[in-house]
Amino acid sequence: MGNPGQIRLEIYKLTGEKVGEPVHGYYAMGEHRCTVSIERLSAGIYIGRLTAGEQSKTSKLVITR
Fold first, then answer.
1. What is the pLDDT of residue 35?
2. Contacts 24+ apart (CB under 8 A), 56-62
3. From CA 52, how far away is CA 4, in angstroms rounded?
4. From CA 41, how far away is CA 44, in angstroms rounded?
5. Which of 29, 36, 54, 65 could form a disulfide with 43 if both were Cys (CB 3.0 to 4.6 A apart)?
6. CB within 8 Å of 54: residues ≥ 6 apart
7. What is the DSSP string of the chain?
8. End-to-end CA distance of the chain
9. Which phi and psi (to 5°) does residue 26 adopt?
10. Cα–Cα distance measured from residue 33 to residue 6, given in angstroms and rounded to the nearest whole number
11. Which of 54, 64, 60 is CA-nearest to residue 12?
12. pLDDT digit string (tens) for 4-44?
């Protein structure tokens, strides 16, 4: 995921319902950081999907209170 282009971070419930898209836009090549507010999400397990161009990576996200 090193080329410049459209980047998207989506967060889903395990049921497949999309609950957020904190990152969506064009980013230059390089390392980037973002802060995601989880105040409106309840504790539980979610799925995060990071998409850059035609590449995609999915990870489990665990929120505890």
1. 86
2. 57/1, 61/11
3. 8
4. 8
5. 65
6. none
7. --S-EEEEEEEEETTS-EEEEEEEEEE-SS--------TTSPSEEEEEEEEETTEEEEEEEEE--
8. 32
9. -90, 130
10. 15
11. 60
12. 889 999 999 999 999 999 999 999 988 888 888 888 899 99
Q: Find out whether 56 and 49 touch, Cβ atoms under 8 Å.
A: yes
Closest listed residue to residue 11, CA positions, set 55, 39, 45, 34: 45
| Cα gap 59→65, rounded to integer Å | 20
Q: Is the model's pLDDT at 65 over the cut of 90?
A: no
What tokens does 15 get?
């049921």
